[in-house]
Amino acid sequence: MTYLICLDALHAAYRDLEQARIERREAAHALATIRETLDQVLELAYQQQSFGPLTNLFDEEEAVLAGYEQSVAKVRELEGRWSAVSLALAYEKERTMAGQLPSSGAEGVIHLPWK
Fold first, then answer.
1. Which of 14, 42, 101, 105 minimizes the number of CB atoms within 10 Å of its CB?
2. Which long-range contacts link 55-62 to residues 24+ away (Cβ below 8 Å)?
C-alpha cells in the first residue's frame, strides 16, 4: 500500500514535538530555579532591608520566562503539526482501504502547510 502522506513526515513531526517538549521541560526547570533563587534573595533582602541587587535577578527571571513562553508556544505549534499529519494519514488510509484514492495525479491530495 502506498501512502501520499509520507510516514517519514509523521516520524519527523513526532521527533520535533518530543524535542520541543524536552526543551520546554528544561525551560520550566530553569524558570523554577531562577524563581527559587529570587525568592531566597528577596527574603534575605527583606531581612537586611537592602534591595539593590534584585534588579539583575528580576531581569534574568523575565528573560527566562520569555524563553519558557516561547517553548510552550513551539510545543503547541508542533502538537498541531503532528496532529494534522496524523489525521491526514488516517484519512488517507481510510480512503485507500475504501478504494477511493486516485491512483495517480494530485487529485485528492491533502496539502499540509509546512515542509
1. 105
2. 60/34, 61/31, 61/34, 61/35
